[in-house]
Amino acid sequence: MATTKTSRNSAKRAAEDAVEQQMEQAKEITNDMVDYLTDYARQNPGYAALACLGVGFVLGWKLKPW
């Protein structure tokens, strides 16, 4: 009986560790993407502004309330 609880606890702990590692990887990817987009926007402000305008136009068109 004790070994069953121990194996469940270790399996649960392993699953939690895997989830934490995935969350850390997602945070790293997000930070890298933000850094890349920030650098790109600084180097090409015109294209970045046009991309934001285009995304805003499409979202506004698709999400209008009526």
Question: Helix segment count?
Answer: 2
First and last CA, distance: 61 Å
Question: Can you tell me the overall shape?
Answer: elongated
Structurally, the number of domains stands at 1
Provide the β-strand percentage band: under 5%
What's the multimeric state? single chain
Radius of gyration: 22 Å
Strand-and-helix sequence, N→C? Answer: HH
The low-confidence runs, each spanning 5 or more residues with pLDDT under 50, are none
Number of strands: 0
Short synopsis of the structure:
The protein contains two helices and no strands.
Structure description:
The N and C termini lie far apart (61 Å). This protein has 2 helices and no strands. The protein is elongated, with a radius of gyration of 22 Å. 0% of the residues are buried. Helices cover 91% and strands 0% of the residues. With 66 residues, it is an all-alpha fold. It has one domain. The model has no long low-confidence stretch (mean pLDDT 89). Helix 1 packs across helix 2.
